[in-house]
Every structure is written in C-alpha cells, then in structure tokens.
Specification:
two-stranded antiparallel ribbon, Multidrug-efflux Transporter Regulator, Chain: A, Domain 2, homodimer, elongated, DNA-binding, 2 domains, mainly alpha, about 140 residues, about 5% strand
Chain lengths: ~140, ~140
Amino acid sequence: MKTYSIGEVAKMMGVTTHTLRFYDKEGLLPNVRKNSAGLRRFTEDDINWLLILDCLKATGLPLKEIRHYIELAKQGSKTLSERREMFIHQKERVKQQMEILNKNMEKIDFKIKYYDEAIKNGEENVYLKNKHLAEEKKRLFKVD
Amino acid sequence: MKTYSIGEVAKMMGVTTHTLRFYDKEGLLPNVRKNSAGLRRFTEDDINWLLILDCLKATGLPLKEIRHYIELAKQGSKTLSERREMFIHQKERVKQQMEILNKNMEKIDFKIKYYDEAIKNGEENVYLKNKHLAEEKKRLFKVD
DNA sequence: GCTTGACTTAGAGTCGACTTTAAGTTCTAT
DNA sequence: ATAGAACTTAAAGTCGACTCTAAGTCAAGC
C-alpha cells in the first residue's frame, strides 16, 4: 500500500511537519505507523482522517474534543451513536456560524453602501440625505 | 442625550466590563466620554460602533487592524475610500469563510450519513455495502 | 450609612494552538 | 563518502485576546 512521508503530507495539507508531529504527540493521529527506521508513514486513511480533523478544527471543535472523538472511535461499534451525535451537534454549530456570517455580511454590505454614499457626497453626514440608509441602519444595528 | 454605564453596555453586548475597559485601554473605543466623576458614559453611537467592532472581530479582523481603521476614521473624509476598501476586503474574507463553511457542512453531512449506515449495519465497514457513500467519500475527501 | 458597582494603574496569568529550539540520527543524491 | 535535506525527541517560547488581581478611591441607590 502506498504511503507518504511527513513532509509530503505536510505539503498536501498545507501545514508544517512541526504541526503534524504536534498532532501526533497530542494523540490526534491515532493510526499513523512508523517504518523500521522510525519514520512516520502516512496511508490514504491517515490523510482522510487529517481532512476530517481539519473540518472539525475549522468549524471550531477544540483539539481536546477531537481527542475525545478519537477515544470513542477506538472503542469500536458500541460508540457509533455517540459519534453520530457529535456530528449532529457539530452540524448545529455550523448552522449557527452560517447565520452569524450572514448577519455580518449584511452589516459589511451596509458599510460599503454607507461609504459609497459618503464618497459621493464628500462627507460622512449621510443619513440626513439618504433616508433609505438611515432605515437600514436602524434595522441592522440594534441590540437584542 | 441618553447614555449608558459600562455595566449596562457590558450586559447589552454580552461581554464583561473588563473587556470593555481592555478595549478602551487598547484604543478601540475612540469616542467614549467620561462624566465629571470620571465614569464612562456610552452613547448610542458608541454602542453602534461596538456592534461594528463585533462584526469585524467575528469575521476575523485582528484588533490591531481594527485600531488602524479607527486611525483612518479619525483622519476624516480624506480616508473615506481607504475605509471603503477595508470593508470590500472584509467582504471577500467573509465570502471565503462561507465557502469553507459550506464545504465543511458537506463533510459533516457525509459523516452523519456514514454513521446512519454504520448504525443500521451494526458495524463500520460501510463502503462495501453502500456504493453511493463510497462515491461521495471520493468526491468530498480529496487533497488538491 | 451600607451595599453595589463604578473608577484608576500596572502587571501577572490563562488558554488554545501552534512554533521554535536544540541536539542528535538517517536518507538521498552526486 | 560526504553534503544537505529530512527525520527524531523533549521542552521552551510565542501570539492574540482576553481575564484577573491588587490596592485603593469614589459615587449612586435604598
């Protein structure tokens, strides 16, 4: 079976070899084997796992919860539903992140419109001249 | 004009008073005035700014770049287009974040389907039985 | 008048996720 | 055979964004 060196994998994943060794030390690379010379050899499965790890990290799961997930996986099929729950929960987190991102996008779009108007008028006092913007400001910038 | 104490604003914004003072110390609250007793009094405009600050933070702009934006704003209308550019750039960042989030959502959805199938079969060896999943795995988990 | 919460400066501590250093070993190409 | 890259380990250092402590003063509401 084809395997990859730590350097090759680092390049593939866009991280440094240091980071991969750090993950290994932290128990985040559960299956990576070492060859007779003590060098890590990564399989396709290891790389697949790194892609999941990346997904979990990118969606805000802390490394120690990722480690917990690994522990579950090691315990075999009796933890299948617990692992499923973890991904369901993560999906909810991602939905929330999307909502927040959409709201922030609206605010940023508003600010761009604001600056378009301000540049057109050569000054910042925009709300008196543009009632539409003033209304939008009210809608977007309020505290719950 | 109605003003708010640091404690009221902290509650509104869902942060601690420590954080607000930290922001002030770091030059991130440019207009907050203090009353005769030296207590901070936040205006509606200050709260509006905190909402923008929050938006910029949440979309990944570091505090020192936020400080830079404040510097620009202080320099008046000659920096209007530079400030507009900053928001245009931030909009691009947010678009990227959305793309990444969508891709990660697909991976998470895949994992949920994977676990649904594994639970149904009582074991993890799912790809032999479900060609559709095997195909989707190939599509979702590949390194560029 | 007492409790609660505000203020001040200055500095130390925390947390997560790396990142770098040091000192040594092994692989690959010429 | 030797240079230089890539590998090994353990441990210390960095960074951003808070978070808290200390030690003391001041003010508002009941």
